[in-house]
Write a structure and sequence with these properties.
Layout (H helix, E strand, L loop, with lengths): L2 H15 L6 H8 L3 H7 L3 H19 L8 H17 L2 H15 L2 H20 L4 H28 L5 H10 L15 H5 L3 H18 L14
Helix pairs in contact: 2-3, 4-6, 4-7, 5-8, 5-11, 7-8, 8-11
Length: 229
Amino acid sequence: MSREEILAGARKLIERKGLRELSMPGLARSLRCGVTSLYWYFRSKDDLLVALAEEVATELYQRLPPIGDRPWDRELEACFVAFREEALLAPVYLALFKHHARFLFSRPGVAQMIVRRLEDVTAMLVRAGLSAEQAAHSYGVCSAYTRGFVLLERGLVGENPEAGVEEAIDRTVARLDPKEFPTLTQLPSFERAMRLDDAQFRLGLRLLIEGIRRELPTASAPRFGLQHS
C-alpha cells in the first residue's frame, strides 16, 4: 500500500460518504488493508487531512487562469467565476475547507497555493487604486460569497428531490394571499427566480463588485455595468 493509494482511497471515501465518515479504521477497511499500513505514512487522521488538502488545493489552484491585464472589475469577476467552476468539480476540496479551513490554512503546504492567488488578486486591486487592506477586504468578501454559493449549490444537488418538487414550491407561493404578499405573487415562477445557477451567481458577483466600487471610490476603472457579458 503506497502513500498515493491511501490518498486516492481517502478521496474516494469522502466523495462517496462525506468527510465525517472518514476515519483511519474506516479507510483501512475501504482499502482492504491493515490500519497500521496507514499509520506507516500518516501518524494521525490530521496528517492525512493535511496531505489530502495539499494535493487537492494544488490541483485546483494550478487550474485557475492567471490574472490578466483587463480593468480590475473584469479581472475580479473572471477570477471568481473561474474559481466557482473549478470548485464545483472538486468536492473533496470543498468538504475539507468547509469543516477544517482554519486548521488547514495554518499548514504551510496548504497555505502556499492559496496565498499565492491572494497576492496576485490583491496586487491587481492595489494597482487599480485600493490600499492593501481595502484590496484584502474586497477579496475576502468575494471569496466568501463564492464559496458559500458553491456549497449551497452542491448541497441542493445532493438533496436529490423527488419529481415535482419545483412545481410544488411554485404552487405553494401561488396560493399566498396577494394582499399580504403582493410582490411574491407576481412572480411567474418563484423556484426559477430563486434558482442557484450561473446567471444568479454572476449577478450576485457583479453586485458585490459594484458595491466595492461605491465603497472604495479610489478604484480606477470605467463604471462596471450589471449587464451579462
